[in-house]
Amino acid sequence: MSFNNVIGRISLANSNSQESNILDEFSDAWKPRGPLDGAAGLNVVSFDMCVEDNRKKHYTDKYKNSSLIVRRNKEFNIIINLNRDFNAEQDMVQLEFMIGSSPNAKKSTYINVSIGKMKQNGRWKCRVVETKANAVTVGITPDASCIIGRFRIFIAVITDLGKQRTPRNPNTDFYVLFNPWDTEDQVYMDNEEDRQEYVMNDVGTIFNGDYKDITSRSWNFGQFEEGILDACLLIMDNGKVPLMYRGNVIEVVRQGSALLNAQDDKGVLVGNWSGDYSDGTAPTAWTGSPEIMLKYVNEGYEPVRFAQCWVFSGVMNTFSRCLGIPARVITTYHSAVDNTGNLKTDIVVDKDGNWDQSRTKDSIWNFHIWNEVYMKRPDLLEKFSGWQAIDCTPQETSDGLYRCGPASVNAIKEGEVSYPFDAKFVFAEINSDVIYYKADMYGNLKIIRVDTVYVGKLILTQKKDSSDYEDITTNYKYPEGSLKEREIMQFAEQHGAPSRDYLTPPESGVDIELQADAIKIGENLQLTLNIKNQTKQTCTLSAVITGCVVYYTGISSKTFMSEEKSATVEASTTESLTIDVTASEYMPYLVDKSNLLFVVYGQVEESDTSLSTMRVVSLLPPELTMKMTGSPQIGKELVVSVEFLNPYNFTMKDVQLRVDGPGLIPTKLKKYSQILPGASVMYRLLLIPQSLGKKVLMACLDCPQLRQVTNKLEFEVVQDPNTE
């Protein structure tokens, strides 16, 4: 969407797109536009923004945008063509840069620099680079903390006859972005590989599944795609983010984490975990951010339906990288939703040992996905700069809005939970204890087990220059059970985290573990219950295993089994029990992006002690096949086919197939009314690569009966050897 097409459509006091009458902005001493009369007058005939050369130097040539795009604190050149030779001792030329509807020097929305006699510079710098006859090349350097957005430029000439500026020309507007290449910028990164990955990479891998069965999907960040830069600015305009705050990356990402969800401000995305997406698009069906962001700004800022955590995170990554902020997607396995911040997640079993869903109010997300952004934190100690956690999935309000962060990852690791913003909430997500309770016949609860290592089991991000993952758990927490980890927990309690003053149960000397592998949807499953007797006497264990279908958020849908088992285990030995689960037991109860959760309650007869554990089993979707015909060369045709076979005995209805690839094609959407059991569908598309380098083409098939069937093709586009 063109920025100019929306000017005037919204009327906001805090808007980059809104303009006022330029003649009303300054003193009446300013003359009307147009050339000055008189032979002695100096006139600006034209000026060249040197778009192509400047964009290459500023690492912005990938943006599909015809305007000049530059980065803070880095010089760019403009060639000013005058009606006569420039005389630096007699002539004076002013360059004015304006943003928003009410340019004001005190608010840094009006900047004025000059060359020639009475040369003046402010926070922006200006110098004469070269003079050739009547052409003057001027170097402009925006200051390292200037506002991010789209600026208007005017060139004014001061002569004895008066002062006059060039006419308004939208074609000379230019954008200023954050600059991670510059040491003075708040988002500076000192490693080029990091900058290429966390700023310039326009496609990524988002990890999900379970920590023992890690799965993934590709995501089109598409920060350089046509209309996305304007969309980022319009999102801030619609959210009424003051222009004067847009030079501070802390404010930009904090506002962004609120504006990307629609929970309280008609932001970009509507969260939905109900399983009913009939009046929108299922969260599992999206393949990338551009489709979502352009839909939002093109359709009158109506929140896009629907999203879950990976969609929020994918769009936040696009928003950040597009503006020049280093960002990455983070997946945390076994993330506690601790709205009370009490560092406890309570699991209740009833008097018979079955999981009591009505009394279990807390939940542990099988995985949760947020972002990290890289920045200096001048508001904190220097050691708390670097990666900051940011989360726009609406879970908890912060300063009255549904948002989270930026919270220093280093501060979270050290238990410094009192620092802004929302460090306490993030700390609880990865450090809560799981408390198992047994309810007696009167409803009274007794703690039977405390698990201090279940939550925050594994934290991942995408490895640089790879589609594999990098384990960054130690960035957030010290090793579980270590002396340092216990010290940090105590320190956090002294600085704002709740005290863990609950009574831990006596040790039984017996440990239980539930094992199972991930299975494909529709397959049978075998559970293994390992019973380890660490005592010096024989023990007898009776156990109840409850199985239910759960959303990935840990919220239960339906209990489908409850089975009793018992075993006698000799001293210092381990016995294993197997439990067979058939597909016919769980298939009727599957829900959106569901998993199977098994909770075990055990009773040791000899010591009259109880113990409990749980295990999530991931359900993997069937395969989506992608094949390429042709050689990936610039300007050469490629044919890609996407094929799917329905392996189930039910009909898949209202099927959507999306194919996406940044720098290759806009999002393609193909709909099928149904796919019968045993039937297959094939979709073919033609590609003609236009640029060199690594490319990723991704596909996602989605319907109410089967969610998130995905695949991707990775390939390198090379030059045609027959071309010179």
UniProtKB/TrEMBL annotation:
This is protein-glutamine gamma-glutamyltransferase. It comes from Carassius auratus. Its EC number is 2.3.2.13. Its cofactor is Ca(2+). It comes from the Eukaryota. The active site is at C309, H368, D391. It holds the Pfam family Transglut_core. Belongs to the transglutaminase superfamily. Transglutaminase family. InterPro entries: Ig-like_fold (IPR013783), Ig_E-set (IPR014756), Papain-like_cys_pep_sf (IPR038765), Transglutaminase (IPR050779), Transglutaminase-like (IPR002931), Transglutaminase-like_sf (IPR036985), Transglutaminase_animal (IPR023608), Transglutaminase_C (IPR008958). Residues 301-394 form the Transglutaminase-like domain.
